[in-house]
From TrEMBL, chain A:
This is Response regulator. The modification 4-aspartylphosphate is found at residue 61. The keyword Phosphoprotein applies. It comes from Mariniflexile gromovii. Pfam families: Response_reg (PF00072). Residues 7-128 form the Response regulatory domain.
Automatic annotation (TrEMBL), chain B:
It comes from the Bacteria. It holds the Pfam family DUF4142. InterPro entries: DUF4142. Residues 54-183 form the DUF4142 domain. This is DUF4142 domain-containing protein.
Automatic annotation (TrEMBL), chain C:
This is histidine kinase. The chain crosses the membrane at residues 12-32, 188-206. It comes from Mariniflexile gromovii. Keywords: Coiled coil, Kinase, Membrane, Phosphoprotein, Transferase, Transmembrane, Transmembrane helix. It comes from the Bacteria. Residues 339-366 form a coiled coil. It catalyses: ATP + protein L-histidine = ADP + protein N-phospho-L-histidine.
Amino acid sequence: MPNDYIHIILADDDEDDRLFFTDAFDELKMNTKVNTFNDGVELMDYLNSEDAILPNVLFLDLNMPLKNGIECLNEIKANSKMSDIAIAIYSTSASEEDIEETFVLGANIYIKKPSSFKQLKKVLAEVVSMNWQYHTNSLNKDNFLMRL
Amino acid sequence: MIINKNIKKQLTLTLIISVGVSIFSCDFDRDENENNLYNNEAINKRVQVNIEEAKIMSDIAILNETLIAMSDSVKGKSNNYHVKNISNKLKKDNLKIKKSLNELAEKKLILLPNKIDENEILELHENEKADFSEIYLKKIEALLKNQITQLEYLSNITNDVDFKVLTVKILVNLNYNLNQTQKILKTNY
Amino acid sequence: MIKRIISKSAIFLRIIFLISVFLILLIGGFTYKHISNLTNSSKLVVTTFKVNVELEKVMSYLKDAENGHRNYILTKDTTHLEPYLTAREKVNESFAELKEIANHGPVQEENLKTLSKYIDSLFRNFTQTSAFVENGFALTEEFKSNFFEEKIIMDSIRHKISEMMDLENRHLQERQKQYQSNLEFTPLFLYLMLLLTLVLIIVSYSKINNDFKNIKIINNQLSIFKEATIQLETVGKHGNWVWYVESNKYTFSDNLYRVLGEKPRAFEPTFEAFLEFVHPDDRKKFSADVERMMKEEDLPFTYYRIIKKDGTVKHIKGYGKLLINNDGEKRIVGNITDISDEIERFLELEERNLELEKNNAELSEFNYVASHDLQEPLRKIQTFISRLEDKEAKNLSASGNQYLERIKVSATRMRLLIDDLLQFSRTNKPDKEFVLTNLNELLEQAKQDVAETIIEKQAIITSDVLPTVSVIPFQVHQLFLNLLSNSLKYSKVAEAPVIKITYELVHSKDDINLINIPKNEYHKITFSDNGIGFEQQYANQIFELFNRLHNKQEYSGTGVGLSICKKIIDNHNGIIIANGEPNIGAIFTIYLPI
């Protein structure tokens, strides 16, 4: 890794979820730097700004006001500058349609928000330490959805 | 169906032809032809006519013979020139007539008698009262008339051309002779 | 078929009739010829007979004449001469007859002439002899030679006459022979012809009789059909029409007028008159259809509306078929049906269907959204509970921890319920995609989903090789998952769960469970376990929604799982059957149609 830190960004409109997320990473004590955004517009503004530090992993919630996760995903994938970002969809729903759509649009992994804090930490740790090259090469619908 | 109509026409035609053929095969032959060998009525009629012809021919033959005999017997009995003349002529003519009669009779299968009326000859010879010539002429006249009548009758009843021709020929002769005889009778008696 | 028989029979009968007529005429002709031949033959016999008679008469006359003449010579008595004198005349009469009737061949004519000459010379001879006798020159040499001559003439005459008779007889025989050959042949021939004609007549009579019977039967059937059709028309709101192709004329049945709302025969049946009733919007299409019918001589189903005179609109279904009769005449027989009722009902049904679908969709939607939206807060609750447990457990009192534990349990239960409801609503989705899927893969996925529990309980799962079937993959996955979870959940306390999954291809007639099912082949998959089982009397109950056989203290559960299984099986047109024995185990049998 070129950097010391693993740069993580979360875009989620839910305050509690943002709290869980940051707390989890705090307790994980991995070499991570976490940023959160409240909605899609804020996220894209940041990412598109000149001095943005692009994250290594972006956790993207689907149901956000102003600009939802699908729209952000499209924009990011359309932007060649952001092609290195590993995108993890982080959502409450695990509906077939959402999984399918995000897979087709180019997300790297789909995570259903767990309901226990312990599980959350486990999932985040796994995702962050994932070898993304390897994962993307052999990506298919089966290993797209993260199995808890 | 169209085939049906055609068959109808053909069958009708066949019907007509078959009717025609069978009628034709009947071979109608009505008794219109009188020369038909098997027609009884016509045959009978003709037979009757034939019989009549034969009878009359016979009578005429007898008359003829009588005339000849009569004319024959004038020889030496009359001195009248006219009478002698006429008797000669009559004899000659009647002989000719006899010949014609015989020819025709032979042709027509009629047998002519050879006899004469004896009575006439007797009467001619036995009658001394009147003049022989007169009697002779009168008798001749009667006989000729008789003969003519017979011939005319024959001419009427016959259908045969030969008979008609003969009668015409003879009648001409007879009539002439009769005329002559009557003239002589008138002038002399 | 009946048409062909009748038409064949018509030609057949005509032919027979003509043959019979021909034969009869033939017979007539032959008979006429035959009879006229007979008549001619008999006439010929008569003629020959007459000729013979006349010739005999002639002979007799001559003999009498000779006789008489001889008597006269002997006795010199002229009374004996009488026959002699009349002989000539009588012979003439006979000749008169013979002339006409004797065969007029040249030979016979010559004969006749010769005979006449002979007779003539005979008579001359007689005259000569008479002369001799009269003059007293009897028995002189001359007289004798004359007498001798007479004998010769007589002989010649006799000879000639017999010659003529022979000739006549021969002629008769020849002609008879001719006739005979004709005559022999004809009667037999005629008899055979008559027999033949009789046979033909009998044959045609029996044929005609048969045909007549057939026609009567057909007529009866037809009149019944006609009556039935009229009734059918009236009751079923149909109308019949016929279009005569060649003459381009229409006939309408009485009921057709009634369908249009008119009295029967209210107007002339023409295309234009009918068009008046057709709805203005449909007139163009209708006219086009009729034109096509005239060209193609066929009218497939057409639909259009008519407006009755009183303004009501009716929907009409029309149809026509070509019919060719015996004489080759074409006609199209068709009918129109008032289907307004059906259309209305159909529209009604459609409306209601739409409504129901909308309702269903709404309910599904509601179900889904509710479940989904309920998940959020529940998840938060559970996460915060877990954080409390992690962080603040030591700060809480015993009862506080207990309460927390209770809250956690309730929250978990709620989560289960919401998950199951979510599943249930998903299986309700109207658009179901069937995909050919390898069921073994779905089973593996299900096993993986409960991998932890399998390891924990040391469960042994064995399975046959499952087929590839056209299914809704995620639903069947759910099905397998629910069944496996149940088997694992309801296992005996001290025993490790053993789950056996078997597969068999069965035919509906071979399996008791498939009695009332449409005949087909089914995939039979069984899930059997050695768990706590259940009373068989509850076998149907357990598939009901929210129905449980245990309370939530003993075994967790929402009572939704098996309902979901049933719903899934229903979606696949299959059957699921449960068999249980308390303390032995449970067997769930699934039938999926191929």
